[in-house]
Amino acid sequence: MDLSQYLEIFIDETKEHLQTLNDQVLILEAEPDNIDTVNEIFRAAHSLKGMAGTMGFKRMQRLTHDMENVFSEVRNGKMSVTPDLVDTVFKCLDAVEEYLSCIVESSDEGENDNEDVIEALNACLEAGSGSAPVVEEAEVVVEKKEESAASGADKRKFLEIGIADFEKNAISEAKAKNMNVYGVTVYIDENCMLKAARAFLVFQGLEKVGEIIKCVPIVQDIEDEKFDFDFSMIVISSKPIDAVKKVISNVSEIKEVVIEDYEVPSDAEVTSSVQVEKEKDTDKKEDTKKKTTASGKSAGKAVANRSVRVDIEKLDVLMNLVSELIIAKNGLVSVSNQEDSKTSMQSFNEQIEYLERVTTNLHESVMKVRMVPIESVVNRFPRMIRDLSKKLGKEMELIMTGEETELDRTVIDEIGDPLMHMLRNSADHGLESTIDRLKIGKPQVGTIWLNAYQDGNNVTIEVEDDGKGIDVEKVKASAIAKGHITEEQAEMMSEKEAVELLFRPAFSTAEKISDVSGRGVGLDVVKNKIEGLGGDVEVTTKLGEGTKFTIRLPLTLAIIQALMVEVRDEKYAIPLNSIVTIEDIMTSEIKYVQQKEVINLRGTVIPLVRLDEMLDCPPREEEPENMVVVIVKKGDKQTGLVIDNLLGQQEIVIKPLGKYINIHKMISGATILGDGEVALIIDSNSLV
Amino acid sequence: MDEITVVNGAKQYIVVKLDNEQYGIDITFIDNIVRLQQITRVPKAQYFFEGVINLRGEIIPVMSLRNKFDLEPKEHTNATRIIIIKPENNAKIGVLVDEVREVVTLEEDCIEKVEYDDQGMNLLGVGKYNDTLISLLNIQGMIQELDM
User: Fold this and answer.
1) Is residue B133 part of a domain?
2) Residue at B20 is within a domain
């Protein structure tokens, strides 16, 4: 057992606590007198401190300790919440987050002491309460003493430890050698998060100064956290009693250590208690054995951050469906045993239908298991908007709806950065400064909406602001100045097309570059990322009234709708979402531009790509008169893919092609068709 | 497999045939041997890959040992087999061979190490079994070459 096995838990829980802290401090900023919130913050800070200490992250522990001190004062009404304090606390949280990301990367907290943050905290503390903390601590000590005095006798739980014969021998041997035998009972703080780790540290410390010959509950149970807040030991040590006590109390979050010289109880007592203890022990051992074998398999190597927390209900549904699947299979078996061919044919069909229903449901449930609420991404945004508000000197608020909307885990992981970028954009470029807003008679506080909702097989996320909107003429001017378009083109452009210019690389209309946004790496990256996820972005804007970015994302990436096509005698799948139309073209309509084949389709010139050539298919003996062209798009660019035959639309499951084979980037994967045949999936994005 | 006692230092090989040469594949790498099934061509892959197959819902790339060793292509027959090799934990690769002969056990002293061979890292050595010679394939070497 070592601490690294707790690291995962630590990281997860620290993230949770940080999120709670961020949320609660935001609330606190709005309602400085909310005592529930203060309590919540205090608890979270306290847990953080405790966990950091357990894991040996001293710097993080110190920082969170000071934070806890501050909130302890606030809680006791000795300090009031000031904007300064909130700022400092947020800085603190950022620092903790920094530690955490260091820990995630290298399992070490890094070297940054964050002295300035700690000083700022202490300054707040002093400004708010003077010398109060000292008094506070003294009080606590007194309380503790009273407590221990009151229940002192009962605390010596080690007296209840049953001693077996061989242990008795060991004790008397040790005494003969002039070693000390101590009975120890350790009480762990009730608020401790990782009590097993605490206990482990106690064991580790004790092993340096002596030998633990007996422990109740048994070590295995302690490791599994199967104990209350105390455990007792018999320790043989050459060191004096105070030294041993010090070793134990050096471990943090230990509430109390009761230690005394240990005498072996009289025989009668021993045997009876030993008997009982033994029975208990064997019970427990069996219990733990079962537990370990059960957990042994699943334990393995956990890969950080690739896990999904699944609602137990979803798993139950899955289990039910699997059992139904088995029933359906059994049904088929019994049908195949029937002799009468006519009835068997009918019940066979029934069973197939049943099977179909079950598999559809099964598919749906498995997909649901992979779904994560979008909340896990967006919950850090209120904090971000608050910081931006301070930084930019604009008053703004963020209103979020539909945080419970679920998306596939793989999409969730990728969507955070683009969303953050768009929010920053709205805050920086979208909203006017507070003064400007007042001048034009808008509400003083700018509003940004983040709405998410499910829409058929898509999830839509809207980022909307009530700011100044996009000035189309300014965009055009900027595009001309940067050489993206000519003046003639600009005149021809519709408003919509002009707005689309924003998604071009290296395009920003902000006059000055701030560190919030406007470095020109912006919306094009957002667009690329979202298109990479199989989604798209759209902008609608009204000058003076606001801008709305609409992101549409597919619910899942593993299963897509595709058009099945044939090229010679091979089957390929083209994802449906990239297809614009399918056209029947006469070979004579093909024109040439710079020796490349193009067609003129209702006024648009579209380049042609012959899939058979791209895919190295054997050439056709003679060119047919007609050919089928699938028009695909990437952004606003279109390309026609020449194929031989259309087979129809189908829902396909994307599978990887295996590790060793090199695949061209125009093939994005493969799928298995109904008859077991493998069809490759064409990535039309790479052909446009 | 349990009834065949393996002497210390001896390894078992599956013997496959290409033309009239015999090749041995270390049995510990082998996951499965399947009959020839429909292979879907993958355009622009390495020249020795025939394509991919669907093995019980998993897509597995299949390479042809003939192509790999620059032998003349030959019609697939009823004896053609795909040997599914599992060089790593979560990756499989199929190897297309003309025929699978038998399983042999070779003691270490029956194997003559090859100092070099003109096909790069393909061979580990040559095993002598009864009166025949078996070229032992260096699976790990071949896989490493693919990874590059």
Assistant:
1) no
2) no
Interval B97-119 mean pLDDT: 79
Same domain membership, residue A361 and residue A274: no
pLDDT of residue B61: 93
CA distances, A431 to each of A11, A424, A489, A668 (Å): 36, 10, 29, 41
Query: Which residues of chain A fall below pLDDT 70?
Result: 1-5, 128-158, 160, 162, 193, 265-308, 456-457, 506-521, 556-558, 635
Residue B46 domain-assigned?
yes
What integer pLDDT is reported at residue A506 of this predicted model? 65
Q: Is A345 helix (H, G, I), strand (E, B) or coil?
A: helix
A68 is catalytic: yes
Task: Provide the domain count of chain A.
Answer: 5
Judged by a CB distance cut-off of 8 A, whether residue A676 touches chain B is: yes
Q: A658 — contact with chain B (CB < 8 Å)?
A: yes
Q: Does B1 reside within a domain?
A: no
The distance between the two most distant Cα atoms of chain B, rounded to a whole number of Å, is 45
Mapping DSSP onto H, E and C, the string for B99-143 reads EEEEEEEECHHHEEECCCCCCCCCEEEEEEECCEEEEEECHHHHH
Do A129 and A16 have their domain in common?
yes
A321 within a domain of the structure (yes/no)? yes
- Say yes or no for a CB contact (<8 Å) between A663 and B44: yes
**Is B93 in the A-facing interface, judged by CB distances under 8 Å?**
yes
B34 pLDDT above the threshold of 80:
yes
The three-state secondary structure class of A263 is coil
The residues pairing with A401 across neighbouring beta strands, listed in sequence order, are A451
- The domain in which residue B63 lies consists of 29-101+140-148
The pTM is what?
0.49
CB < 8 Å to A616, chain B: 43-44
Whether residues A396 and A528 share a domain: the answer is yes
Q: Which of A68, A73, A253, A500 is catalytic?
A: A68
Residue of B nearest to A618 (CA): B43
A664/B contact by beta carbon, under 8 A: yes
Using the beta-carbon criterion (under 8 Å), do B52 and A570 form an inter-chain contact? no
Looking at the domain assignment, is residue A467 inside a domain?
A: yes
Indicate the number of domains in chain B.
Answer: 1
Pick among B29, B38, B44 to test the A interface (most A CBs inside 10 A)? B44
A394 and A537 part of one domain = yes
For A212-250, the pLDDT digits (tens) are: 777 777 777 777 777 777 788 888 888 788 877 877 777
Compare all CA atoms of chain B with the CA of A674 and give the residue at the minimum distance. Answer: B57
Q: A425 an active-site residue?
A: yes
Per-residue model confidence (pLDDT) at position A572: 94
The answer to whether A46 is a known catalytic residue is: yes
Can you give the pLDDT at residue A154? 57
The predicted structure's pLDDT at residue A143: 41
Same domain as A130, residue A42 = yes
E strand or H helix at A397: strand A396-401
Domain CATH number, residue A531 = 3.30.565.10
Q: What residue has token string 């033309």? A: B19
CATH number for A643 = 2.40.50.180
**Do residues A351 and A488 both lie within one domain?**
no
What is the pLDDT at residue A306? 57
Residue A4 has a pLDDT of 66
In chain A, what residues touch B146 (CB-CB under 8 Å)?
660
The mean per-residue pLDDT over the stretch B76-96 comes to: 87
pLDDT tens profile A567-616: 988 999 998 888 999 999 888 888 888 888 899 888 889 999 999 888 88
Element (H, E) at A51: helix A35-54
Q: Is residue A294 in a domain?
A: no
Query: Given a cut of 90, is residue B53 above it in pLDDT?
Result: yes
The CATH number for A79's domain is 1.20.120.160
- A400 touches A381 (CB < 8 A): yes
User: Same structural domain for residues A420 and A515?
Assistant: yes
Side-chain-side CA neighbours of residue A656 (13 Å):
9
Option in A614, A617, A680 nearest B42 (CB): A680
Please indicate, yes or no, whether residues A234 and A350 belong to a single structural domain of this protein: no
The domain spanning residue B66 has which CATH number?
A: 2.40.50.180
> Structural domain of residue A24, as residue ranges?
4-147
**Are the beta carbons of A77 and A39 closer than 8 angstroms?**
no
pLDDT for the residue numbered B90: 74
Map residue A257 onto helix, strand or coil. Answer: strand
Do β-strands B58-64 and B91-97 pair in parallel, antiparallel, or remain unpaired? parallel
Q: Tell me the pLDDT band of B85, cut-offs 50, 70 and 90.
A: very high
Q: Is residue A493 helix, strand or coil?
A: coil
